[in-house]
Amino acid sequence: MRAAVLYGPRDLRVQAPPTPEPGTGEVLVRVTLAGLCGTDHRIWSGKRAVHYPRVMGHELVGRLTETGERVVIEPNFSCGGCALCREGNRNLCLARTAVGIDVDGTHARRPERDGNEREDHAREVPFEHRVEAHESDLL
Question: What pLDDT is stored for residue 110 in this prediction?
Answer without folding.
Answer: 55
